[in-house]
Sequence to fold (190 residues):
Amino acid sequence: MTNLVLFGPPGAGKGTQAEVLKQKYNLVHISTGDVFRYNIKNETELGTLAKSYIDKGQLVPDEVTINMLNAEVDKNAEAKGFIFDGFPRTEAQADSLAKLLESKGAMVSAMVALEVDDEVLVQRLLERGKTSGRPDDADEKVIRNRIKVYYDETAILKNYYQKQDKYFGVDGVGGIDEITERLSSVIDKL
Fold:
């Protein structure tokens, strides 16, 4: 089973690459944001619980998030593996994900991070903002803050996975096919 933690700053191309890799390797893409939206929209027990925290402006506790991810993994029990996108964000979450996968006889195969220069990210996001309708893609100050938050949060996880020899940084600049090729050369060696 191939289980990837896909990382990269906002605008690095995670969503695009996750779609390509999902098809190429027959993996299930689990985007934490999508899982939250689905559970909240469908008013599942976990969605209602998560919404109660979000409505108070609080972070959803790791336990609730892990339970949602567990439900997604269970829904796809026949999968050849998963691409985790947007999770983990902290060492505690990485430990929780490891335990979840271990309980299913699996593990995280690798953390693959798309590395893109900040100025390229800002331009990509401003460009995306013209068509995405997302207000957080239209304001350069907000974009730069999102990038800073990403680096502040993920530096810890980079070290976490490096200690396990599971961290792989991949150049995220170039054509979609070029980047997929770079990612594939890492995944094919796992």
Q: What stands out?
A: Residues 2-116+157-187 form a domain with the Rossmann fold fold (CATH 3.40.50.300). The CA atoms of residues 51 and 57 lie 10 Å apart.
